[in-house]
């Protein structure tokens, strides 16, 4: 290797550029991996982003990548690129706990399909990143691995459930990450840490091996897996390498995602800045509106009033039923939830009671929610016949101070000086999730006290390339990822 890449400046580069440097022989895989591992050893004790260490196997794979290069053989687009994945993906020989202490002794017998596809493209997976228990929080902490801290302010949370993923990318501990999302779990941490994240259209990236089961599990409603990165180009590359049907349908199914727009001028973009049932802090709204106005100056046709034809509260209720039922069904303590519901009195309509009822919903109740969801999908389909994309918040606030109080549904957040329910901001995640829509989060600047703000770009089903493309255009207009100070 001719060593022409500056390893002191490398950690905050894009995965796309690093992969190109590897393929061109400007750096070796072993050199790059050791440089990242040095940063992990230096900074991870403070951040606690990466919690499963696979460095011994990764070093073997990096050496093999370098030997292949010396023989003129390419291992793929990501030839020798060091990266990490969320703890909830199976990585052969390592535990998949979802934050449960009783899973510490588990060892996965094979890699998750996404990990297989990334490795087939040449990636070297050297670690797994931290999560909240059951992947069910806006913060990432658990009794197995501890708490992950935000690199912009370590007194604040990293987001969840792909919190470790976002921190690893933001702090330059990994070249690329893969997470999962059912309630904003890619998008929320991306916003809180100032990086890019993409929630794909439902099912286009298979989830096999993203589970606590060693056997293949049934496709979970709402849930998706997708990348987190330091550039929109990295998201596009990671999606291209991992999208495609699993073996059961690959004989006759292929995804041909529509090409993105060719120019900003004339693009029809709606902007949804706030909603009464899920208020957004002025500091967040200001950055999103500024980003939208920058698009307007570049020739985009903005519409701040356009909305799909449904009642927001109804959409949130449909999403809430589907989300809670699916999240609860995979919990090992499901029987305790049923017992708790049976103790409810009929006139208890508190948030906790309603969550319990949704968590233990009957098949009929879930079936009815599915039917209502179809109406939401068609409303969005009609909307995207008149508008190309939609801009909206993903988080109600910038990253907030750690709050591990229990029960979690009783927590509150401060929005414009008022206390609002902790999980109210699920509304912004659910708009895209319930209707299977793709959503890309892009950094859009910082608050007055230096905390990152992210914006989600929502598009029609299968419009993934367009939402990612617009994220890239935003970076060109207003700037994108910036490294957190001190890292």
Give a concise summary.
Helix content is 36%, strand content 15%. The protein is α+β, with helices and mostly antiparallel strands and 487 residues long. Strand 6 and strand 7 form a beta hairpin.
Beta strands, count: 17
CATH homologous superfamily label of the largest domain: Amidase signature (AS) domain
CATH uppermost class of the largest domain: Alpha Beta
| Estimated radius of gyration | 21 Å
Describe what you observe in this structure.
This protein is an alpha+beta fold and 487 residues long. The chain has 2 domains: 10-242, Alpha-Beta Complex (Amidase signature (AS) enzymes), CATH 3.90.1300.10; 268-464, Amidase signature (AS) domain (Amidase signature (AS) enzymes, Alpha-Beta Complex), CATH 3.90.1300. Helix content is 36%, strand content 15%. The chain has 14 helices and 17 strands. The protein has helices spanning 15-23, 29-47, 55-70, 113-120, 163-170, 187-193, 232-242, 282-297, 312-329, 334-342, 351-359, 363-383, 426-433, 464-478, and strands at residues 50-53, 82-86, 124-129, 141-142, 146-147, 149-150, 153-157, 177-181, 196-199, 224-229, 268-271, 301-303, 389-392, 412-415, 418-421, 439-446, 452-458. It has an 8-stranded mixed beta sheet with strand order 8-10-9-16-17-13-11-12, sandwiched between helices. Helix 5 (163-170) packs parallel to helix 6, helix 7 packs antiparallel against helix 14 and helix 10 (334-342) crosses helix 11 (351-359). It is globular. The chain starts with 14 loop residues before the first helix and ends in a 9-residue tail after the last helix. The model has no long low-confidence stretch (mean pLDDT 95).
